[in-house]
Amino acid sequence: MSWKGTEAVDKIMNDNNYAYVDWNALSGDAEGKRRTPEQLAARVKREVTENYKPDRLVVLMHDTYGKENTAKSLQEIINHLKSLGYEFKTLK
């Protein structure tokens, strides 16, 4: 989780059976200049294989105007993550 000092909110959420999920890897699709699908996929691969291999992975990616290359990078990212043994599931 990337946020600190959330104890009060955490308690309220827990008391009301809410949960939140935060990202722990990113594609870099919102960092400055427009990147190609290959560059975005390479960033995710680096995040996951060089830096750490978390048990649960949530990749931050955006789906707005100007982020079309993010969608184009998905198949390569999915294939790579599956090759590392990751499974894709619905968050509950």
Query: Which regions are unreliable across 5 or more consecutive residues at pLDDT < 50?
Result: none
Overall spatial form? globular
Give the amount of beta strand, in percent. Answer: under 5%
Please state the average pLDDT score.
88
Strand order of the largest sheet: 1-2
Number of domains: 1
Kindly state the percentage of residues in helix: 40-55%
The number of helical segments is 3
The description of the largest β-sheet is: 2 strands, parallel
Q: Give the beta-strand count.
A: 2
SSE order: HEHEH
Structural class, judged by helices and strands? mainly alpha
End-to-end gap: 17 Å
Q: How big is the Rg?
A: 15 Å
What does this protein structure show overall?
Strands 1-2 form a two-stranded parallel sheet. The chain is globular and about 45 Å long. 43% of the residues lie in helices and 4% in strands. Helix 2 runs parallel beside helix 3. It has one domain (19-83). The protein has helices spanning 7-15, 37-51, 68-83; strands spanning 25-26, 59-60. The protein has 92 residues and is mostly helical. It has three helices and two strands. Strand 1, helix 2 (37-51) and strand 2 (59-60) form a beta-alpha-beta unit.
